[in-house]
Amino acid sequence: MSSAGEAHLARRLGTGDAVVIGLSSMVGAGVFAAFAPAAAAAGAGLLLGLAIAALVASCNATASAQLAAQYPTSGGTYVYGRERLGPWAGFLAGWSFVIGKTASCAAMALTFATYAAPPGWERPLAAFAVLALAAVNYAGVTRTAALARAIVAVVVVVLLLAVGIGTAASDGGEQLVPPDLSWTGVLQAAGLLFFAFAGYARVATLGEEVRDPQRTIPRAVLTALGLALVLYALVAVMLLLALGPERLAVSTAPVAEAVTGTWLAPLVRVAAALAALGALLALLAGIGRTSLAMARHGDLPRWLAAVHPRFRVPHRAEVVLAIAVAVLVLLVDLREAIGFSSFGVLLYYTVANAAAFTQPREWRRFPRALQVLGVVGCLALVVTLPSTAVAGGAVVLAAGVGYRAVAQRAGRLRRTGADGG
Questions:
Q1: How many angstroms separate the CA atoms of 222 and 213, rounded?
Q2: DSSP label at 262?
Q3: With the C-alpha atoms ordered 282, 285, 291, 292, is the resulting torsion angle positive or negative?
Q4: Is residue 397 part of a domain?
Q5: Greatest distance between any 2 Cα atoms in the chain
Q6: 3-state DSSP assignment of residue 288
Q7: d(CA 373, CA 139)
Q8: Could you tell me which of 251, 287, 313 has the C-alpha nearest to residue 34?
Q9: Is residue 404, in this structure, part of any structural domain at all?
């Protein structure tokens, strides 16, 4: 927890704002980025994968909501892990979140540009989008919530229209659950689709900016998750009926393809671009607040803990993040980053479930069995992710652990030297 002398962020977000920030994070990532690779892994079995991902996400949501009510400060599971399990657990959660979501930011920026940019201009437009939305976040979190509300309203309306038109145009002949399921494929699809759910607890990383956090955060987390799940299920069924699992698996823009030739097709592309922007906006805000919390404890350079005196946001952390993501989208193809992001985020929620398991009776809102199921589910989905994602994530995670170990040792040596002097 932060000390009394540190500058604090302003509590300006209500329940509606918090729900919208979480929902905009999920809708942008899930509907327009995750269904095609999930279909490639499991075919029509992606519906079962979606159910498994939703079950694991629900366990994680109850853990996050319960923890956020007890620790209503910025940083999410980084803070919860430190408080309940110790500094190393907190660091593993925070570092997993930062690396996974930084990759997600780049992926969302590139997704936006794929729908919005003329050929050859995708990367420059993606970098511009990152810098522009970072400027919105810099100006204050109430602007973040206001823009997220507008984006998610447009996207949800267009998606519901697409569900109606795409389902009506299909012949209904596709099997929604095939008889020859590959459970390995289903679990891999669940791991990939978990990427789509990962925004549900974004409001927990904004805990220092939420009014009445003990009541607002649990309500907002569970409400956002439930709304997203209903929308995902409707869209998934429509895509399978309209395209079939084979076409869906290779589609770069499945929702638009499902309504090709109708008046809605161009609006779907606009909505997809807006959804990616909404997800990117909320991701930038969440990573900035986690970086703030880590810097306060010395797990990142302490100068990143500065809070802007006027806008009350972690401005240095957000500037560094924006530059890093802009460079990534200019130099690296991150269309396969979903697996890498899922690796980091699943480990993040593993720590959240373990931390929630240790909470005393007065703070418990849900049975401990849900946290056990959450840990088992997260780890099971991690090991079924593509091997390249697991290997790459493990290397980056190990690099962070090595950095912290060296930094901790250097700090002890400095203190020993000062005491000896």
A1: 14
A2: S
A3: negative
A4: no
A5: 82
A6: helix
A7: 40
A8: 251
A9: no
Asked if 103 contacts 337 with a C-beta cutoff of 8 angstroms, the reply is yes
Contacts of 56 (CB under 8 A, 6+ apart): 190, 194, 349, 373, 374, 377, 378, 381
For residue 363, give the DSSP letter.
G
Residue of 61, 40, 373 whose CA lies nearest to 225: 61
CA 136, chain centre distance (Å) = 19
SS3 of residue 13 by DSSP = strand
The tens digit of pLDDT for each residue in 73-110 reads 766 788 899 999 999 999 999 899 888 888 888 888 88
Provide the residue type at 92 as one letter: L
For residue 195, give the 3-state DSSP assignment: helix
Q: What is the CATH number of the domain that holds 139?
A: 1.20.1740.10
Task: Please tell me the distance from the alpha carbon of residue 276 to that of residue 94, in angstroms, as a whole number.
Answer: 23
Phi, psi of 74 (to 5 degrees): -70, 150
Number of folded domains that form the chain? 1
Q: Which two tokens stand for residue 49?
A: 């994968």
Query: Could you tell me which of 145, 155, 180, 178 has the C-alpha nearest to residue 232?
Result: 155
The C-alpha atoms of residue 39 and residue 323 are separated, in whole angstroms, by: 34
Cα–Cα distance measured from residue 165 to residue 258, given in angstroms and rounded to the nearest whole number = 9
pLDDT of residue 352: 94
Whole-angstrom Cα distance, residue 287 to residue 5? 23
List all residues 6 or more positions away from 302 whose beta carbon is below 8 Å from its beta carbon. Answer: 295, 296
Residue where the block lists tokens 């907190």: 90
| Residue 94 amino acid letter | G
Residue 420 located in a structural domain: no
**Would you call 312 helix, strand, or coil by DSSP?**
coil
Q: What is the pLDDT of residues 225-280, one digit of tens each?
A: 888 899 999 999 999 999 989 899 988 788 989 998 899 999 998 988 888 887 78
Q: Are 230 and 261 in contact (CB under 8 A)?
A: no
Other beta carbons within 10 Å of 24: 34
pLDDT band, very low/low/confident/very high, at 136 (cuts 50, 70, 90): confident
- Centre a 10 Å sphere on the Cβ of residue 124 and count the other Cβ atoms it contains: 14
Alpha carbons 401 and 406: distance in angstroms, whole number: 9
Closest by CA position to 305, among listed 70, 75, 76, 72 = 75
Domain limits for position 280: 15-386
Mark out the alpha helices in 71-212 (DSSP H runs).
77-85, 87-116, 122-138, 141-169, 183-197
One-letter amino acid for residue 352 of the chain: A
How many whole angstroms from its chain centre is CA 335?
A: 16
Question: Does 316 reside within a domain?
Answer: yes
